[in-house]
Specification:
The protein is α/β, with parallel strands linked by helices. The chain contains 15 helices and 20 strands. The strands form 5 sheets. A 9-stranded mixed beta sheet has the order 4-3-5-6-7-8-9-14-13, sandwiched between helices. A 4-stranded mixed beta sheet has the order 19-18-17-20.
């Protein structure tokens, strides 16, 4: 299977990424402004939606803050007018992403496509061309900070041919991480023999057994999943000792990081990314999160979308993707809460440092029929409700060790049908995870609770006593 890759573009971008990393903050700002002007020019030329939204007289040199904020729901509702290639049609792309057999397959031979979760109340579909993928590839390859390897290991295996990487996530959907792993293995066939994907939706015992058999030297997963694996290592069930644990997609609390490091034994490296821009930030050897500001603009704002000064926590953040001209994202309400720091990092990077406080969905610890504790991961639960039941706006609250309460904003017959699907899928998933019967109480006509950031905390554990 072919994939979206342009060696010349990658070489050009890689040289620039490497040069920018050795430059100054002023160099980063100049690159950012040049790329913003190019993005605005192509968007004015190709996107009917943005032309209708932007003030009359907008030019490539218009200041970013003068343009309106856009949301996912707004863009998805006008998808065919949003994109700059008329061959990209939403109905066809939805049919494509509904087929798990086509994960990682190029659309029209020249686009990578992935879907996002429904955290904001509606799933999104995001299309990347060769230029955008070259940027993501270069940022991932050149700016991630791998932990140091033991000298003997580096001497015996300088090319890393003995590495075995395990990706652990929701592998049956067209999600950015899953598509990226498939694409990477297609581009580098030798990686297909040393990289395996493991589903978070399988019972924990089966996952632990599969990881023990594979014995990965590196793990890529979500913080809550890594913490769960650390629990299994602590009780002696998981017997792997990876040298590297790459986490992303969720908030990584300091205590969770310490627990993962202590029990799994490897160095933890966290990253910050989204479906809207795959490689927003990377963590340096000093543990600081750096934003790839030469290719993405983040504007921290308060609850009224007013700018928030550096050093203060924002209620939300607006994202502008400078790499993707086929599906422009300009002042897009991402919803994450971040704090931008003013001081430069000791690592010497000219890129700004941010503290990210992302999604706060919680793992649910339930009680099995034999009294054994079973942890249901938030990513797995949201995937079950979104992919299996087709519900994206929900609030799942744990009442006790055997009972969940599911709130949906829907009402009437549609609400009752959606609630029945959700309850059936949750109970089926619980049985598959070894819980046996659980009670799922439903409430209709309930708005999903949201924090000040505007992002929903959709899965909440019961209070510890």
């Amino acid at each position: 299977m072919s994939t979206v890759f342009d060696a010349l573009r990658l070489s050009t971008v890689s040289l620039d990424v490497a040069a920018a990393q050795r430059g100054t903050p002023q160099d980063i700002a100049r690159r950012q402004q040049t790329r913003l002007a190019a993005l605005l020019e192509s968007t004015l030329r190709g996107s009917r939606l943005y032309r209708s939204l932007w003030p009359a007289g907008t030019t490539p040199n218009t200041a970013l803050h003068q343009l309106p904020v856009v949301t996912r729901a707004q863009l998805m509702a006008n998808f065919n007018d949003w994109v700059t290639d008329p061959q990209l049609q939403l109905d066809a792309l939805r049919a494509f992403t509904a087929d798990p057999n086509r994960i990682g397959e190029p659309w029209l031979g020249r686009y990578m496509v992935w879907e996002s979760s429904g955290t904001s109340g509606q799933p999104g579909i995001f299309v990347q061309d060769a230029q955008a993928m070259a940027v993501y590839d270069a940022l991932e390859a050149l700016r991630r900070s791998p932990p140091p390897k033991p000298l003997l290991s580096s001497w015996w295996d300088p090319l890393g041919l003995g590495e075995r990487t395990a990706f652990i996530g929701a592998i049956d959907g067209h999600f950015a991480s899953t598509v990226s792993v498939r694409r990477l293995c297609t581009l580098n066939p030798w990686l297909a023999h040393s990289t395996r994907s493991f589903s978070l939706l399988q019972p924990l015992g089966a996952l632990v057994q599969a990881l023990n058999a594979f014995a990965p030297t590196a793990i890529a997963t979500y913080p809550t999943a890594a913490a769960l694996l650390a629990d299994e290592a602590a009780r002696g069930a998981l017997r792997i000792r990876p040298r590297e644990i790459w986490t992303g997609g969720e908030y990584l609390a300091p205590g969770v990081r310490d627990h993962i490091t202590r029990q799994l034994g490897g160095a933890v490296r966290n990253s910050y990314g989204a479906s809207e821009f795959l490689s927003i930030g990377w963590e340096c050897a000093h543990g600081q999160m750096h934003v790839n500001a030469d290719w993405v603009i983040l504007e921290p704002v308060d609850e009224h979308l007013r700018p928030v000064p550096a050093g203060h926590a924002a209620s939300s953040v607006l994202l502008t993707n400078l790499a993707n001209h086929v599906q422009p994202l300009v002042r897009y309400a991402l919803g994450d809460q971040i704090t931008v720091h003013t001081e430069r990092c000791r690592c010497g990077s000219p890129l700004p440092v941010v503290q990210v406080q992302g999604r706060h969905d919680e793992p649910l610890v339930m009680c099995g029929p034999d009294g054994r504790r079973v942890t249901l991961l938030p990513l797995a639960l949201s995937t079950v409700l979104e992919d299996k039941a087709g519900v994206f706006d929900f609030y799942l609250r744990q009442i006790d060790a055997c009972t969940l309460e599911l709130q949906l904003p829907l009402e009437g017959e549609a609400g009752h049908q959606a609630l029945a699907r959700c309850c059936a899928e949750l109970q089926s998933f619980a049985r598959a995870m070894g819980l046996g019967a659980i009670e799922v109480r439903g409430k209709l006509g309930q708005r999903t609770p949201r924090g000040r950031s505007g992002k929903a905390c959709r899965i909440v554990a019961c209070a510890k006593t």
